[in-house]
Amino acid sequence: MMFEFVIWLTLLLMTKPSDTKPLRSEIKNEIHFDSNITFEKRGLHEEAPLFYIEDRHPAEFFYSDPYYPSPLGGRIDHVWQKAYDKARKIVEKMSITEKVNLTTGTGWGSGPCIGNTGGVPRLGIPNLCLQDGPNGVRYTDYVTNFPSGLAAGTTFNKELIHQRGKAIGKEHKAKGVHMVLGPVVGPIGLKAAGGRNWESFGADPYLQGIAGAATVEGLQQQGVLSIVRHFIGNEQEHFRQVGEWDDNGWDKLDESISSNIGDRAMHEIYLWPFADVIRSGAGGIMCSYNQVNNTYACENSYLLNYLLKEELGFQGFVVSDWGAQHTGVYSSLSGLDMTMPGEIFDDWLTGKSYWGPLLTRAVYNGTIPQQRLNDMVTRIIAPWFAIETLKLPSEDNIPNFSSWTYHTYSQKFPYQHFGPIVEQNFHQNARSTFSEEVALNVAREAIVLLKNDGHNLPVDVGDGIKRILIAGVGAGPDSKGFDCKDQRCTDGVLTSGWGSAAVNNPYVITPYEAISERARSLGMVVDFSNENWNLDHVSELADYADLSIVVVNSDGGEGFIEVDNNYGDRNNFSLWHNGDNLIKHISERCRKTIVVVNAIGPVNMEKWIDNENVVGVIYMPPLGQFVGKALMEIIFGDVNPSGKLPFTIAKKKSHYVPIVDDLSKNNDPQDNFDRDIYIDYRFFDKHNIKPRFEFGFGLSYTKFELSNLNILEINSPTEYLPYPEDYLPIYRTIEDDVCDPEDALFPHEEFDPVPGFIYPYLYNEDVRSLPDEDDFDYPKGYNTYFKTTPPLSGGFGGNPALWEILFSVKAKVKNIGKYKGGYVGQLYIESPSTLVSSPAKVLRGFDKVFLEPGESKSIHFDILHRDLSIWDVESQQWIIQTGTYKVYIASSSRRVELCGEIDIGI
Ligand code: BGC
Ligand code: BGC
Questions:
Q1: What is the 463 CA–ligand 1 centroid distance (Å)?
Q2: Which residues share a beta bridge with 716?
Q3: Ligand showing the shortest atom-to-Cα distance for residue 561
Q4: Are residues 390 and 259 both part of a single domain?
Q5: pLDDT above 70: residue 7
Q6: Statement to judge: residues 413 and 494 lie in one domain
């Protein structure tokens, strides 16, 4: 009720004729700026502090409003409208069991891929293959292990990120994959210790959005559909999924963790990158394991029906994370369109599903309207017609590998040990010069130089460096080899974090291999030690070395794998394997010690960062198979470092948001996101905390000079968004066709069931075993009246006017040093606090250029309507506040080079 009232109010507000009247704006270029970044102003519509009242269970404060019914697809954009029409022509030919087949996975291991839908052979539609993942093709051979998403974000190079998406897409295509489970734009990086932050692009929604969209475009251009994950609030691994936490007394877990997210943060932080990927045409979105505001993400009608399908105008389908579905009818009504891998979590191989036969039954007995099932299936099929580069898979376009065996021949269902021996792996080489070049380039550009005192880097024989030491377990191969399952081995160089995003390496170039080869070619003597505990020998070697390179690491990954007591999330920010001590011992003896930190996120550097013998510090996110080569090229100056930190490195653990890892108070853990919109650098700025290294920071071997800031108004800002166009009409409606339940019975005369395989057929003709429509306990707020005009939506990612360019910003950058190199111009905006207070700076643009010594180039940024908007919780809309906006061109979130002002008023 309340919610409808809000919508109605919003409608009223948004139709006021004066609302979209252009506002006057006045521009000042190159103003003097105050480097004090504390921010204490408070605005009029301040959101109440995050509902935190002691002694009361957060569930009382964090809940989601219901929103029904699930919006029908095909009502936005003429291209998609036509695609839906084509898809509906196919769907209308399907029987109910055929439709159900496309919505339900056939079961874990029941098919070649990580996820396989049922097929519709009668219409030539094969089982659809969904495969991890975001950094390359999981569980197969002859593929590239690409640099991680985090590495892609660290490059701050949009074109390269796009190329990476293309290369990853191309390899999936070559393996016969239909849909890629990537990219990852959630976790967003709220928690520095979060185990999966290395899969996504860095702790800022803008960076995630740009990188996510460029990746989706790259993937889909290669003919594979992109499923963006995880929607939403999966910011830590602990307790992500009930049934998964059996250790440390955690088996008391009653429900998956609830990520409690306030409305403003939901819009300005967590939804933000999803809006971008939807706008770039992503065909699928994966809902996450966790609950959001005390309802499971995959059955949260407000999230899926309202925010995603209505407000963000998402026209594709929603698929559950693997076992993230907790109910059958409710999840369907709430907007889930496909369940994976098909079974109930942890009931693998039982064939028990919330959908499959039960979905068929619920449609037959009228509990779920057929229109809902039709929309689920149409959403799965329509993207293949809407996106020019995609084509609905056919039976001659199927996977040529198996995720469940690496052997060439094996039983048809290797995971089940069932079926005849067949050819399973065709060992198709998916690699190409293109993917290797892209993988190497991303690795190169993702290396961040944090310290270079005395300019000992790049290494030059001319500087008297004749004998070097390469040290640390992270410099060489793991004694167990390279490809432990899901990359869970950490006693060697890290090519990735662990979990479903990990990819097998076709080979690895370790730091030791690449650096020693290069050093030898320069006539150097190369010592090596990978002993991290007994340090006598390495200390002695450090004595002889003119320069030491110490590679240290810190790893983490997905929650289903535990390594050294780290259950996905990291327990702390210390270096692994006695790293601090190793650095101490080496730097005590060697005056030129270079520390290379290879880690899935920030580490604590305080023990050695100010040590004067630690002359150089390099950070590398997981870089894939070329890690050693890329590092070598930076160390020897073939490549000038141009990576920028995609997160803040703090001095103290207490500056980061802790992982909720304790069930002593509560068996249904509540994770209140009380940093609100102040994640990462926004928090450090707000409280004026000096980080060790700030977001966006990274040194170069050369120097850059900035000048000529020029802000230009392209379109006048308006306080409110114009009312969007009405939804388009639906050309074709599919008639209900429930006839005789006998039609949906298992066709035993045609084939024998495979054990554990999920079929769509009814167990028996009695469809009443689920109460029928009249006495079914429908969720609160359930109704079947489709909304005709969405108040805020109307386009992909939201109201189309959000993407209108209001201002364009240019500046000149000149390379005034001796080396050629890349410069990342970063645009930050400080908003006025007329209605609400805002962070001191938010990233709203980046542009990377490469310059020869002495060369100048222009960097360019577009400021869109959304870039200046705040989400107003009270009126439920995006608003451009009147007042003064500061525009900073910066080399990091704390190094402002140029500053301008836009004054927006009536
Ligand atoms: C798999 C993941 C899966 C998880 C569920 C793991 O063994 O590799 O892909 O989602 O189990 O817990
Ligand atoms: C992960 C997903 C992944 C799925 C399939 C889950 O455990 O959370 O990201 O796509 O497994 O492997």
A1: 51
A2: none
A3: 1
A4: yes
A5: no
A6: no
Mean pLDDT over residues 839-861, rounded? 98
The residue whose two tokens read 């004729």 is 17
Alpha carbons 188 and 273: distance in angstroms, whole number: 9
- Tokens 């577009």 belong to 862
Q: What is the pLDDT of residues 340-360, one digit of tens each?
A: 999 999 888 889 999 999 999
869 lines ligand 1 (CB under 6 A): no
246-266 core/surface letters (b: 16 or more CB in 10 A; e: else): eeeebeebebbbbbbbbebbb
Instruction: Determine which residue's CA is closest to atom 3 belonging to ligand 1.
Output: 322
pTM comes to 0.95
- pLDDT digits 0-9 by tens, 812-846: 999 999 999 999 999 999 999 999 999 999 999 99
Query: What are 142-190's pLDDT values in tens digits?
Result: 999 999 999 999 999 999 999 999 999 999 999 999 999 999 999 999 9
Locate the ligand 1 atom nearest the alpha carbon of residue 114 and give its number. 9
Last residue of a domain, one of 575, 605, 640: 640
Measured CA to CA, the distance from residue 526 to residue 475 in angstroms comes to 13
Core vs surface per residue 532-542: b (16+ CB within 10 A) or e: beebeebbebb
Give the C-alpha separation, 173 to 136, whole Å. Answer: 11
| Residue 722 vs residues 19, 314, 373, 684, 792: alpha-carbon distances, Å | 8, 20, 34, 35, 9
| Ligand 2 binding pocket includes 181 (Cβ within 6 Å) | yes
Number of domains in the chain: 2
Contact of 819 with 836, CB cutoff 8 Å: no
Catalytic residues: 321
Region at 397 (left for phi over 0; alpha for psi -120 to 50; beta for the rest): beta
Checking DSSP bridges between strand 129-131 and strand 179-180, what pairing results, if any?
parallel
Output the CA 500–ligand 1 centroid distance in Å.
7
CATH number at residue 215: 3.20.20.300
- What is the mean pLDDT of the segment spanning 278-301? 97
**Lowest mean per-residue pLDDT among 570-579, 594-603, 782-791:** 782-791
* DSSP strand pairing (842-851 vs 562-563): unpaired
Say whether both 186 and 216 belong to one domain: yes
Q: Is residue 21 part of a domain?
A: no
Amino acid, single-letter form, for residue 781: G
Residue nearest to ligand 1 atom 11, measured at CA: 560
Residue 322 Cβ contacting ligand 2 at under 6 Å:
yes
Domain that holds residue 414: 81-429+728-744
Longest dimension (CA), the chain: 87
